């Protein structure tokens, strides 16, 4: 997935979310940049994990069919990601890179607005004056005729949500026109929080398969071939920022117009984040009035991120962040569960047990 980085070395040794750096003008600037990146990685995980708990409860109360990643999905994910990466590599050998850059700009523009709207809507709704009516809307697109129908689109929203979308669209246009790093971070932050909140791993085994597969994926494509380097260098700087949280190392010298960025890939936030969120839901299921496994793994993620940055600067070479984050995020809860006698309970835990899912399917068929 990626590594913390700066633009110049990224041109030489980077990957999908990997980065290193030209030496910043001052040690203070580098410290501020990487310290800020660490914070920008921790905060989305913290917020997204607790929002995932609320989302999980809402699903159980409403009987909504959960959208979870299966073990097969987790096993196929690194393979699909590898095919997509190699496909881009071939694409850039044949077709102008401008086409894919335009496509990704539009993709992140529209999805970024939706993600930011979903994140900020509750806050904006509270700030809107009571004089503005909160009118409900229901957007429904159905395939087929009753009683055998299939919902293609079923979305409920209010006039307040539309106001929020208008504000978020302004941020999206700001990003589209200026490619400013603050606008980029706002969209990236929304992507990360929504990914951690909505993408659920159903059990620890699925999480181990996913993180383990991406661990080897990251190492192979960064160190084993030049494919990821070639693809990374083919993207324009604004597109690279799309895939990263960024913070300028020269902010002390240039202020908000700074341009020498340190970067951290969104994948290095979301992928470990969905596993850490699963551990928070596991803690809640134990009903021990503590978030022991979540807190321990959250701290392990922090230490893994710090280790990535330290090793990168020690050896002056790009480092795949998942090389350090995966062992930290998997090894810590498994070791602690073994010591505390919770290892069987940990592996038996499921957000949505199979029998409950089967029961929901039967009820759905009866309702139809």
Automatic annotation (TrEMBL):
GO terms for cellular component: cytoplasmic side of endoplasmic reticulum membrane; lumenal side of endoplasmic reticulum membrane. The keyword Transport does not apply. GO terms for biological process: membrane protein proteolysis; signal peptide processing. The chain crosses the membrane at residues 31-53, 74-94, 100-120, 204-223, 261-280, 292-315, 321-339. GO terms for molecular function: aspartic endopeptidase activity, intramembrane cleaving. Pfam families: Peptidase_A22B. Belongs to the peptidase A22B family. It comes from the Eukaryota. This is Minor histocompatibility antigen H13. It is a multi-pass membrane protein. Keywords: Endoplasmic reticulum, Hydrolase, Membrane, Transmembrane, Transmembrane helix. Residues 1-20 are annotated as: Disordered. It is found in: Endoplasmic reticulum membrane. Residues 1-10 have a biased composition (Acidic residues). Signal peptide: none annotated. Its main location: endoplasmic reticulum.
């Amino acid at each position: 997935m990626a590594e913390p980085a700066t633009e110049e070395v990224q041109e030489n040794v980077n990957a999908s979310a990997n980065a290193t750096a030209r030496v910043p003008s001052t040690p203070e600037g580098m410290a501020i940049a990487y310290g800020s990146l660490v914070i920008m990685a921790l905060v989305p995980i913290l917020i997204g994990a607790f929002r995932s708990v609320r989302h999980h409860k809402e699903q159980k109360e409403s009987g909504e069919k959960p959208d979870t990643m299966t073990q097969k999905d987790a096993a196929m994910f690194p393979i699909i990601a590898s095919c997509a990466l190699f496909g881009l590599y071939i694409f850039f050998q044949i077709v102008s890179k401008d086409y894919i850059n335009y496509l990704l700009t539009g993709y992140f523009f529209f999805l970024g607005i939706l993600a930011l709207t979903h994140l900020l809507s509750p806050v904006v709704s509270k700030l809107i004056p009571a004089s503005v009516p909160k009118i409900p809307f229901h957007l429904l697109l159905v395939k087929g005729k009753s009683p055998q129908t299939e919902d293609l689109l079923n979305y409920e929203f209010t006039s307040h949500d539309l106001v929020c979308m208008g504000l978020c669209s302004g941020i999206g246009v700001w990003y589209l026109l200026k490619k400013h790093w603050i606008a980029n971070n706002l969209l990236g932050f929304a992507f990360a929080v929504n990914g951690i909140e909505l993408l659920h791993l159903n059990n620890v085994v699925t999480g181990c398969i996913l993180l383990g597969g991406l661990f080897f994926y990251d190492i192979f494509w960064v160190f084993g071939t030049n494919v990821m380097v070639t693809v990374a260098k083919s993207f324009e700087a604004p597109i690279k920022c799309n895939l990263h949280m960024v913070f300028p190392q020269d902010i002390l010298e240039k202020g908000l117009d700074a341009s020498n960025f340190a970067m951290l890939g969104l994948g290095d936030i979301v992928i470990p984040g969905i596993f850490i969120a699963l551990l928070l839901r596991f803690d809640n299921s134990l009903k021990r009035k503590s978030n022991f496994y979540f807190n321990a793994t959250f701290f392990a993620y922090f230490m893994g991120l710090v280790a990535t940055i330290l090793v990168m600067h020690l050896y002056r070479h790009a480092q795949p962040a998942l090389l350090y984050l995966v062992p930290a995020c998997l090894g810590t809860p498994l070791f602690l569960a073994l010591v505390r006698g919770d290892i069987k309970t940990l592996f038996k835990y499921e957000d949505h047990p199979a029998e409950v899912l089967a029961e929901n399917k039967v009820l759905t068929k009866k309702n139809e």
